[in-house]
Structure of RagB/SusD family nutrient uptake outer membrane protein:
Amino acid sequence: MKKYIIPILTCGLIISATSCKKFLDLKPLDSYTESTFYVDEKGLQGGLVSCYDALQTDSLYGNNLLTLGEIRGDNVTDNDPGSGAGVRNSIEVFSETSANNILAGSWQGHYKAIYRSNMILDRAPAINMTESIKNQIIGQAKFIRALSYFNLTRLWGNVPLVLTVQKTDEARQNSRTASAQVYQQIINDLTDAATKLPATWADAQRGRATSYAASALLAKVYLYQKRYDLVVSTLQPIATAIYAGTVLSVVPQTTTFPSGLKTSKDIIFAVQYLNGGVKEAVNQDNRYRNNNNTNTITIPQSIFETTDNRRALVAPTGIGARPGKFNSPVSNSTEVSGDFPVLRCADVLLMYAEALNEVAYGNTEAFRALNTVRTNAAASTKTAAMLTTQTEFRNAVYLERRLELALEADRWFDIVRTGQMPTVFPGIPSFRSIYPVPQAEIDNVNNKSGWQNTGY
């Protein structure tokens, strides 16, 4: 019997070992992996949702960009310097270091959005689906990637330009790319996105990036590059649509904020949040409060005309009061989270007015664009008799941007872009116009040479 039993047992062990190995090699049956998820249109659409979701987080428009783009400026003052070990206050008073976790979170948040966008762009071409829908998916992913890189280069200057899905070892080989090259990639993405995206979406899909959003962001990129002729030519069709008022239109902020952001014709693109208690949205609806232990809104009421309907919305009075822009209503004892506007019609018209004036002073269309925004706010109109030079018109636009876009995370970037930093913040060294690269990111790469910004 032994001569039969031993071979049988041996075979049994071999079969058992082989079966166990196959069992251990099986992929999870109850969850997706990157190789099994992005294989069809449904997977791409789901991945696209995750791209938009990345913009919502506290790392980006839910919180950190408000500190980096607004508290850093002169509209808001941090009123709790000890909170969070002072990381937010240090950004306001220009003492931040590369160890600041707000910087680290924002850097990682943007590259998370880029990674997810790259995943879509990597997989989409090979998937069999309707070409028009595929183009819409690609256009949205390129828009989100472009927006992310636009923020990154405004915050840090030179940043790694990653256009493919990388593994960890590949990422460790990254180096920083010159901002001019990053801007060119942003331009390429937005130019292509504008041709692939629709001008509008059905109500059920409202909030997705449109061709108007891609073109408006493209014009903003040109504005930062001072390519004013391209700003004008890119924005002219959008301005015409705004004046027509059918799809786009300026809307008085008394109705645009705090309600109606999802349906307002003024909104070209906003980071959207669900109403009522969604985790990623809970913190962002407390964006600003007045005179409490978080921060104080310091934009002077005196710079608004008495009839200006924006004044009460951005400069509230009373302890704990929030500005009307973000004073979302309460529903079932849970604060309802409001959307965060990224591109608005009023912003487009002010960019248009600025660019027209830089091309040549005295353009009647520049006055029309500026006054459309002011009239919408119930402020007085400006005439050539009031703004008699290119410089006077330029300064009027700069002020109008501060009034119109207050608390929308654009103020700090406008101060830097327009060369106002020495005037607004005298004595602050120019190297602080951009932030220090997070030390954790430097630690993660193999070649650390040239990674930190000068001065830090």
About this structure: The beta strands are 76-78, 267-271, 295-297, 330-331, 334-335, 340-344. Residues 1-27, 276-286, 330-337 have pLDDT under 50 and may be disordered. DSSP finds 20 helices and six strands in the chain.
